[in-house]
Amino acid sequence: MADQLLSTVPHHHSLPENYIRPESQRPRLAEVISDAHVPAVDLSSPDKSHVIAQIADACRSYGFFQVLNHGVPVELMVKMMVIALEFFRLPPEEKAKHYSDDPARKMRLSTSFNIRKETVHNWRDYLRLHCYPLEDYVPEWPSNPSSFKEVASAYCKEVRQLGFRLLGAISLSLGLEEKYMEEVLGEQEQHMAINYYPKCPQPQLTYGLPPHTDPNALTILLQDPDVSGLQVLKHGQWIAVHPQPHAFVINIGDQLQALSNGRYKSVWHRAVVNSEKERMSIASFLCPCNCAIISPPEKLISEASPAMYRSYTYEEYYKKFWSRNLDDEHCLEVFRS
Predict the structure, then answer these.
(1) Is 214 in a helix, a strand, or coil?
(2) Which partner for 220 in 81, 213, 235, 284 could form a disulfide, CB atoms 3.0-4.6 Å apart?
(3) Any residues with CB less than 8 A from the CB of 9 and at least 6 apart, and which?
(4) CA-CA-CA-CA torsion for 93, 100, 27, 35, nearest 10 degrees?
(5) Where does 227-298 have alpha helices with state H?
(6) CA distance from start to end of the chain
(7) Cα separation of 3 and 50, whole Å?
C-alpha cells in the first residue's frame, strides 16, 4: 500500500492519469492574482484594540490572516520544517512502517486526501498526527529522524498556546468575553498535518489539495519559507498567499463561522504545486471536543440576524465532513437552520 506514496519515487516524468482533473476543475494558474493584499497582524503591538480591530476585519473580509511577532520561537519553527523534510526523505521501507489509508487512525502517513473514496487524487503525501494530550500520542510518533518527537512536541505546545491567544482575540472582536470561544469549544483536540508536495510534471492539471474549507475551529499554518503554493478565494478570485518570514497563516474554520453566526468566514483555500521545487507545509488544527455543542451565542442573534445554523455537536459535523469528498459543497450547508 505504501507504494502509493509520491515521495517514494525520486522523479515523476509525467502525471499519472488518476491525478488529472477534469477541464472544468483545473487550477487555471494564469488567472491567480499574485500581488493581492494579504492581511497581516503584528501581535506584539502595544495597541491591543487596534490588533482586535485588524483581526475582526480580516475574519469578516477574508477568513484568514497572517500573524507576525507571535511568540513562537523562530528557531523552533525552522527546526520543525527541517525535521519534517527529513522525515519525507527517509527510505521507502522506513516510511512504509507508518502508512495507512484509514482516516480513523490517530497517526498515519498517507497520500492525497481520502484515497479510499476519491476518483481523482491530489499531488500530496502527508503525515497526520494527533497532538493532545501529547503524552497519549507521542509514543506512537516516528522515532526516525531521532529528534522528531522532541522537536514536534515542543512545536505543538507553542502552537497550542498561540491558538488560545487567537481564540481570545477573536472572541473579543465579536464583542464576547475573552474566554468565550475557548470555553464553548471544550477541551480541544489538536491535530497536525505535515504536508509534502513533490515537484509535479504538469502542475496545471492537478492540485496539492483542491479548494476546501477546514472543518475545525482554527488552523495555524507554517508555510515553506521558499516556495509558494497556498491560495485563498476572495470575491470569486484566487489570490496567492506568499510565505512571509517567520509568520503563521491563520485560517478561520467552519466552527468559527457557525459560532460567529456567519459574521466570520471559513476561508476557501487550496494548495497548488509546481514543476520546479518540492514544497512543505505544516498545518496545526485546533478542534472542538467531540461533545462541544456548536450554536451561536445569544448576543449574536436578533430578529434582524436569526441563527444561520442549527445546533449540532462537533462529532456529528466531523463525521459528515469525512464522509464526503473534499471538494463537495460546503459541509456547513447541511446544518443550515
Answers:
(1) coil
(2) 284
(3) 198
(4) -80
(5) 254-259
(6) 42
(7) 51
DSSP 8-state secondary structure symbol assigned to residue 151: H
Summarised one tens digit per residue, pLDDT across range 239-265 is 999 999 999 999 999 999 999 999 999
Average pLDDT over all residues of the chain: 94
Q: Which residue has the cell 520543525?
A: 80
Nearest to 257 by CA among 52, 60, 65, 54: 60
DSSP-derived 3-state class of residue 56: helix
| pLDDT score of 330 more than 90 | no
Region of 41 (left: φ > 0; alpha: ψ -120 to 50; beta: rest) is beta
One-letter identity of residue 270: R
Residue-wise burial string across 263-288, b where 16 or more C-beta atoms lie within 10 A, e elsewhere: bbbbbbbbbbbbeeebbbbbbbbbbb
**pLDDT value of position 12:** 82
Rounded-to-integer distance, Cα 236 and Cα 109, Å: 34
How far is CA 96 from its chain centroid?
Answer: 24
Listing DSSP states for 157-205 in one string gives HHHHHHHHHHHHHHHHHTTS-TTHHHHHT-S-EEEEEEEEE---S-GGG
How far apart, in whole angstroms, are the C-alpha atoms of residue 255 and residue 253?
A: 6
Give the start-end residues of each E strand in the chain: 40-42, 64-68, 107-111, 125-130, 189-197, 209-212, 218-223, 230-234, 237-240, 248-252, 269-271, 279-287, 293-294, 312-313
The three-state secondary structure class of 318 is helix
